[in-house]
Amino acid sequence: MPTLYHWWRSSSSWRVRWALELKGVKADLVLVNLMTGENEQPAHLARNPMGYVPVLALDGRNMIESMAILEYLDETHPSPRLIPGDAYDRQHVRALSELINAGTQPIHNVDVFEHHSADPEEQKRWNAHFIRRGLKAFEKLASPRAGAFAFGNQVTAADLCLVPQCFAAARFGVDVAAEFPLVARWNAASLATPECQASHPDRYKP
Ligand SMILES: N[C@@H](CCC(=O)N[C@@H](CS)C(=O)NCC(=O)O)C(=O)O
Questions:
Q1: Cβ within 8 Å of residue 185, ≥6 positions away
Q2: In CATH, what class is 3-79?
Q3: From the CA of 144, how far away is ligand 1's center (Å)?
């Protein structure tokens, strides 16, 4: 059985917890405490030299980077597809995912905002600024091809990135419902699904 090393409110961890639920893959879930710096200890650095969660350990291998893990799970457990459709659709879903994974979340990562400022208020301003920028772009890019979810009428990798990002937005004072009504609608549709609920951070709070 695989082991998922994660942190309860880590958005990248939630993506993988959710994917495991969707794919019906059972895993042992082990918390790595980002607040005490457990992720910077040798045991975790041996799993991921970046000191980040998530890590999915399977057959003696440590898989890192949530998008690469999602792609691995999609290839080994094809149903339901997280990155569906023809090449053009796949490019679109990957672009939406990367807009969060590469263009938004890394800028408000703990090590980044702590490096930017030691002042909690400034950290919050910084994080909120980049989250707003990302969600605004996501809404614009997604809306022409959205359905009940961010792309069409099935949950895709784009939702697995968007919903944890909205959860993080609330922590930093971004009012998603007021500022991004379409994002809020797709977010609510996902939150109503059993797999999203089963993987929700509140269920893993230590
Ligand atoms: N691109 C990576 C990002 C992983 C990442 O940023 N993880 C955060 C939590 S969401 C982390 O471990 N942060 C620890 C720190 O900044 O010290 C992925 O998608 O897996």
A1: none
A2: alpha beta
A3: 30
Task: Give mean pLDDT in consecutive 10-residue pieces for the chain, a chain of 206 residues.
Answer: 97 98 98 97 98 96 98 97 95 98 96 94 96 98 98 98 97 96 98 98 97
Considering the four listed CATH numbers 1.20.1050.10, 3.90.1150.10, 1.20.58.100, 3.40.50.12160, the one that applies to the domain covering 87-195 is 1.20.1050.10
- From 52, 55, 115, mutation site for ligand 1 pocket: most ligand atoms within 8 A of C-beta: 52
* Separation between Cα atoms, residue 113 and residue 115, nearest integer Å: 5
Degrees, nearest 5: CA angle 108-50-93: 60
Q: Of 160, 152, 142, 153, nearest to 196 (Cα)?
A: 160
What is the radius of gyration, based on Cα positions, of the chain? 16
Alpha carbon of 53 to ligand 1 centroid (Å): 5
For the chain, give every domain's residue range: 3-79, 87-195
Q: Is the CB of 111 under 6 A from ligand 1?
A: yes
- Note if the pTM is more than 0.90: yes
CB of 189 closer than 8 Å to CB of 178: no
